[in-house]
């Protein structure tokens, strides 16, 4: 029997929408299964939760898929014959030519965006003018050109979707969430991010595989279907198509809104039932959060009063720390280590001996055993350590244009006391706006640009290796000491970051040398080298070293704020200045520098929220936050403030393995809630950059 090989011509919009939507749902379903398999051990999926996330996930993908067809609508509108008429064609020619001349000869609106926007505009308009001119003047090219354009558009949709799905797997392994504000932030720093991807993964084989899959999918779906290229619609039919599509877009929006409003007690389930592309768009749109519109509010007078009482501030928002100001002012070196979770250290349960240097320092240092990071990004840790305030909602203060915090910063405080104040970073300090922030707040910024090429022994896309930035720091400290002035330096490391590359021959590691564990071991080795070199300097005896993480290696957990994923190490090492001890108090990154200033008897007036952990009046508590969820932890209860004016509280019970059991409570503790509200409300609304 002869097979029917007849091809059918169909409306290209219908073909692309139906075929792509089917692919989108199938791949989205499979992607969720892959992400479930790759989830951490604490994900604890039940049969019911799996059924829920897969069902809601398909619905979420369906809604997002409908919204993704909006660009196709503009392609569809362009598939008309009127534009090739004599009047219409010359009008479009003149319009495109005027637009191109505007971008080439004038200071255009695209120049306001900076970066690659002007170049992209010029390239786009040049191409549109060239392509339309050919089609307008050479009618025989039109059908072929339209066919190539439509198949290229279809292929681009499939390619980008498959590539983004592969990226979601990588992102999930790194952060334990779907695309979110971190992905949005990384778009700004394409050089580092693309370089990181190229150094960390086999990108070329991946791209080839995705390209082959794209060609195969488009070819398979085109076997018996061809695009109709001419006479696609009459004005009346176009109106019908637009009406139907408007209904589909509204349906997609409602589905997405409904599915993304759902929450589960297990955050892994919440993440997996959502759509990564949609989450990315939501994060992009809500890059800034107006606190008073999204979070629960107290009357201003009450919020100010509670905040000042809890922070120990007077009516002017100031307080005095330290008990004297001796002529001998010790040097302070604050080493902020990239992604150093507490559980990498032997004291906190690690069995791999990853940090022999830090482990050996424990009994020689003042150690804060229950100290918590304020966030899950480097800028959050730097913000906490330099400003000593709870985290802001939305993006960090460091990344904002209005980030001059006047006399609030630690740098300004110590500069007033006669210190050289410096910030060291092994990469380019434009990343995350670090250079701008520290430069405006009392610090001299020293980054990769200040290291001579011959002094760089190893570097990757994130910057020079930790040894190189430590060597640079030592040379600057020697110069500072010769001027007979004390110095305060904050050093931000980079080596403990994917792609986890570092100088060869420095450490012994079994297995893959490019793992997080190997990078932690190298950073620990580099810190040991720094301290040994410093011990040979005459200024060492009068120097205090603080070793602390910026944040944990991972912040994902069953709840939005899993407390154990915010637990970081903090050691204060100064053999001649500080007595070793282990401090078993819940405390925060924002308390570290006020404690150091008090330890060194540096009497000064400050506006910090953070307090001296060693003071008898210190009340154990910690602040921790994601991009949107703001947490306050006190008395084994975690209060979480979320958009839109949502409040949750959890009882927190420590477990024997170092993790915590967090159980939601029905009865909110009003006192703890008001403390959380007051602190975050004050920092976000009343503590203005100046």
UniProtKB/TrEMBL annotation:
Pfam families: Sulfatase. It is a multi-pass membrane protein. It comes from the Bacteria. CDD domains: LTA_synthase. The chain crosses the membrane at residues 21-38, 50-79, 91-110, 116-138, 150-172, 201-221, 242-262. InterPro entries: Alkaline_phosphatase_core_sf (IPR017850), OpgB/LTA_synthase_biosynth (IPR050448), Sulfatase_N (IPR000917). Keywords: Cell membrane, Membrane, Transmembrane, Transmembrane helix. Residues 330-601 form the Sulfatase N-terminal domain. Gene3D superfamilies: 3.30.1120.80, Alkaline Phosphatase, subunit A. It is found in: Cell membrane. GO terms for cellular component: plasma membrane. Its main location: membrane. This is Sulfatase N-terminal domain-containing protein.
